[in-house]
From TrEMBL:
Name recorded for this polypeptide: S9 family peptidase
Any one GO biological process: proteolysis
The Peptidase S9 prolyl oligopeptidase catalytic domain, residue ranges: 753-921
Transmembrane segments: none
Key words of the record: Hydrolase, Signal
Gene3D superfamilies in the cross-refs: alpha/beta hydrolase, TolB, C-terminal domain
InterPro entries: 6-blade_b-propeller_TolB-like (IPR011042), AB_hydrolase_fold (IPR029058), Peptidase_S9_cat (IPR001375)
Length: 953
């Protein structure tokens, strides 16, 4: 009897738990609009405060300031925009913008009325708040904790003309004394690193008093460094804060746009401050048709001997041709009244010209690419230099060698010239480049490498001393001494592969990660597929910092960059790394202690970790932790080994009210091609063991590395939100896909179908109610899979490629290039062209197997899709329609590859779930699916579906 009571108690307890769990409602789309979650996260320089914003998906937000190791916290409404929180360097103050409320912002947009932000400054010691209205920008005085500069927005009555003065008031506010000083007509301002000097530019009406000014913050002494009827812009202090560069523009009647000069300010000493002005019009060596680029920020070399800046096309105004006859009146000729008067010559502007484009097979870039990139080409910045001592201008980049990287210390620059290979690279995606070394003292150029394979990176990683670099060729990493040209094999003596074993694109020996150089330039830090190696610059000594992690399938996933102003990895300081296990998907953090040669794993578990922060002036650390069921929250600790971390933030406070996924299974399975793969199977809310559930199979490429990532409820640009479906009783399956060249679609079949069968074998998945969904590349695979299998009851494909033969030569309109390179060297994985590979192209094209489709399809394709041509969706839709297959295509007018506008995102998210609910759960079919909507009735249909924050499910 006693045992029976225990059994009954367990049964009742279990039943009660189930009832309580079932009492929680599923998320609906209105809940998503109100879903409250955190944005961002900042740590004060002393580590004693954290700040973040929170609030609903749609609506007004709040900023929270909280003591890192205490419960004291302050909360402030900030309107509809999550602006960042900035701490003063002494951690006494926090400042942030406050925008207008959501309702006010929406009303203002309707009548195109401008809105303005406030600035709130909070004294952290006593929570005293100071606010300023109509603020454009603000800045604490860097390392000087005394001041904050506040620039106010222009008046609503200010002229909007492009040549109108841009200056507004700037208030210098002393945080301790509360005294303030106003500076008028400021267009731009910037403190130096120490905060002892403010540089600012004046742009006043009529350009009266325009110039560059310096204010000594301690004394208030102001110096005018340059005055002119000109526009000044782009203040750029050097890191030390003892010099800055900027641009100055003047009107010139010969040119369509302003002509810019470069100004360098250094040796700062009041009126004795040194000023260098470089004006291209005064330099006979400056290239014709070019001018200083207004969009490229100038800067000093470290030794302040050289100014670097960009140049670009400078168009002259058309010459006005004068009529010599009008200038010199000739005697009138005698006319014969019997002859017809000669017709006047038509004016040039009245002649009708053809509107045309000429496409030539020799064009290195397609005409469409040239059109799409026309503005970028016109404004393209060619890196240039001006040496002060010998007043020498050097154009470093040119029309062939467009990409020039100035190396640290500015001794050398590296130039990349792909002009000989650009056409071929745009055709087959296999890119090459010539690499040049430019001596910045002499301007001389020397070719280091000819026809370097660039599809796999093709870039040098330059050490902080600017004298040595690493590069990758044919499966091995090398170093090169830029001073003497000597090379060394860095990885040749290491018994490990430096070819990325998971990269299955059509790339020759794809490289593993190169994490750059140590701060002292003595070591290269390079990954094999699992371990991180510290390799001496001459390649003679190599140490595995992760000590053979391959045996456990663990790897160094990346380095956490926690030190400001770092140049390279400073091995004299503690360095932190993300640790990841590709077998278990466990993640964690590791530390390489200062001066040591082994990474110590601090922790790994079934969570995702990110955003490791270190307080700038203290040993306080913060990081985020999350998993499939726990949204990201911050933990903080004062221990370098991250032990005894305390949770600082909470997130998604409403989640506990709703049914939620109880877990995820990692499934091991073997593909039809014999590859061992994995799939993530997320359990539906209120999951009961032994019961099977309708399941959405979501596909792209390899997805299981995100096993422990949290899915935030929202309105995604492709319609599918995992959290919503799990809450509403669906299981979600995410399998990995491994590709074979020339069989992308068949590879998806070989991997996805066995994954579905393995998931069904767990008992979780209802084999009669499995659907599939993917967008873009996932949309292609979805539309192909339903031609090869009947395992899916329903499918939804977003922006899919459907005809690999026609798609191959269509335009990728977002860039203007052709898809050929994408097919042959990137995601398409089909090479060469279909004329030599017809069977593979046809075998992997959904449209060529369209008669075999038995699965109803919801198709999304927008009419302005710049990635996958709209005709791909049209062709598949019309083919299915002609065969009387159940298909509905939704097009959002004006939208690109994904859905950007919130009303459209809401609409498609709801429709997709309505469709899956009907197909997999037996709910009533939505009318737009079962009957369609007549064009004349569309407006009424949309009105009846309009919702504020989403419809109920």
């Amino acid at each position: 009897m006693k045992n029976l009571k225990i059994i009954l108690f367990i049964f009742v307890l279990s039943f009660t738990k189930n009832v309580l769990a079932q009492d929680k409602p599923a998320l609906n789309w209105k809940d998503v609009s109100k879903w409250n979650f955190n944005r961002g996260g900042a740590l004060s320089p002393d580590g004693q405060w954290m700040a973040w914003a929170s609030g609903p998906t749609e609506g007004d937000l709040k900023v929270k300031l909280r003591k890192t190791f205490d419960t004291l916290s302050y909360t402030y409404p900030i309107g509809v925009t999550a602006n960042p929180v900035i701490f003063s360097k002494n951690s006494k103050y926090a400042a942030f913008k406050v925008s207008v409320k959501d309702a006010e912002a929406k009303a203002a947009r309707k009548i195109m009325k401008p809105t303005f932000d406030k600035l709130m400054i909070v004294s952290l010691a006593d929570n005293k708040q100071t606010t300023f209205e109509k603020v454009k920008s603000f800045s604490f005085s860097e390392e000087n904790p005394s001041w904050i500069a506040i620039q106010f927005a222009a008046l609503e009555t200010a002229s909007k003309d492009k040549d109108a003065a841009k200056g507004t008031d700037v208030l210098l506010y002393d945080l301790s004394t509360k005294k303030s000083f106003n500076i008028g007509n400021v267009s731009e301002y910037a403190f130096n690193k120490s905060g002892s000097i403010l540089a600012y530019l004046v742009d006043a009406n009529g350009q009266n008093g325009n110039g560059i000014f310096l204010r000594e913050m301690k004394t208030g002494l102001t110096t005018a460094l340059d005055n002119d009827k000109a526009i000044y812009k782009s203040i750029n202090w050097n890191e030390e804060g003892n010099a800055f560069a900027l641009l100055k523009s003047n009107k010139n009647e010969k040119y369509k746009e302003d002509v810019f000069s470069v100004i360098g300010i250094n040796k700062i000493n009041g009126d004795l401050t040194n000023k260098v002005i470089y004006t291209s019009l005064n330099d006979t060596t400056f290239p014709a048709g070019k001018g200083v680029n207004t969009n490229a920020t100038p800067y000093w070399s470290d030794d302040q001997t050289t100014l670097f800046f960009g140049i670009n096309t400078l168009e002259k105004k058309e010459d006005k041709k004068t009529d010599s006859v009008a200038k010199t009146k000739k005697p009138e000729a005698k006319t014969d009244s019997t002859k017809t008067a000669a017709k006047p010559e038509p004016k040039k502007e009245d002649i009708e010209k053809p509107d045309m484009i000429i496409w030539n097979w020799q064009d290195r870039r397609l005409q469409s690419a040239q059109q799409t990139q026309e503005m970028r080409d016109k404004s393209f910045s060619y890196t240039s230099a001006y040496r002060i001592a010998d007043k020498k201008f050097t154009q470093l980049a040119d029309s062939n060698m467009r990409n020039v990287v100035v190396a640290p210390k500015q001794l050398y620059a590296i130039g990349y010239d792909n002009s000989n290979y650009e056409l071929a690279g745009n055709l087959d995606g296999q890119s090459y480049t010539d690499i040049y070394l430019i001596d910045l003292k002499t301007g001389s150029k020397k070719r280091l490498f000819e026809k370097m394979y660039a599809t796999n990176g093709g870039r040098l990683s330059i050490a902080p001393n600017g004298k040595i670099a690493s590069y990758y060729v044919d499966g091995a990493f090398y170093s090169i001494n830029l001073e003497n040209g000597q090379t060394a094999n860095l990885t040749g003596n290491i018994k490990a592969s430096f070819v990325d074993e998971l990269d299955d694109h059509n790339v020759l020996k794809p490289a593993t990660q190169n994490l750059g150089w140590s701060a002292d330039s003595k070591y290269a830090l390079i990954m094999d597929n699992y371990d991180l190696w510290r390799i001496s610059a001459d390649g003679k000594n190599a140490i595995s910092l992760s000590d053979n992690w391959k045996s456990t399938k663990a790897s160094v996933a990346g380095r956490m960059r926690i030190y400001p102003y770092e140049k390279g990895t400073d091995l004299s300081k503690d360095q932190y790394f993300t640790v990841f296990n590709s077998k278990t998907k466990n993640m964690g953090l590791g530390i390489l202690p200062a001066g040591k040669s082994k990474i110590n794993v601090l922790f790994t578990d079934a969570n995702a970790y990110g955003q490791l922060l270190k307080a700038e002036n203290a040993k306080v650390f913060a990081y985020t932790k999350s998993n499939y069921a726990q949204s990201p929250v911050h933990f903080a600790t004062a221990n370098a080994d991250l032990s005894a971390a305390k949770q600082v933030t909470t997130n998604t406070p409403d989640q506990a009210k709703y049914a939620w996924t109880p877990g995820v299974k990692l499934i091991d399975y073997v593909s039809a091609n014999g590859d061992s793969l994995q799939a993530a199977l997320y359990l539906p809310a209120n999951y009961v063991a032994g019961k099977s559930y309708p399941t959405i199979t979501y596909i792209y490429e390899r997805l299981t590395d995100g096993l422990n990532n949290y899915s935030m409820p929202g309105f995604p640009g492709a319609g599918f939100n995992k959290a919503m479906y799990l809450s509403n009783g669906y299981a979600v399956l995410e399998p990995d896909i491994k590709y074979k060249l020339n069989d992308p679609g068949m590879s998806a079949v070989a991997c996805v179908v066995p994954a579905v069968k393995a998931a069904i074998a767990t008992g979780v998945v209802d084999e009669k109610n499995v659907a599939i969904h993917g967008h873009s590349w996932g949309g292609y695979q979805t539309s192909f899979l339903i031609t090869q299998t009947d395992i899916f009851k329903a499918a939804a494909a977003g922006a899919p490629l459907t005809n690999m033969i026609s798609m191959y030569s269509l335009i990728y309109w977002n860039s203007g290039g052709t898809n050929q390179a994408i097919f042959e060297a990137s995601q398409g994985r089909l090479t060469p062209g279909y004329w030599d590979n017809w069977d593979a192209f046809a075998r992997n094209s959904p449209v060529y197997h369209i008669k075999k489709v038995q699965t109803p399809l919801l198709l999304l394709h927008n009419d302005k899709d710049g990635a996958v041509d709209y005709t791909q969706g049209i062709e598949y839709y019309n083919g299915l329609r002609r065969l009387n297959k159940p298909v509905v295509m939704i097009t959002y007018r004006g939208e690109n590859h994904g859905i950007a506008k919130l009303p459209n995102r809401k609409d498609y998210a709801v429709r997709m779930m309505e469709y899956f609910d009907y197909m997999l759960k037996g709910k009533p079919a939505p009318e737009w699916w079962s009957k369609g909507v007549n064009r004349l009735d569309m407006e009424k249909h949309l009105e009846t579906r309009a919702f504020d924050g989403g419809e109920e499910n």
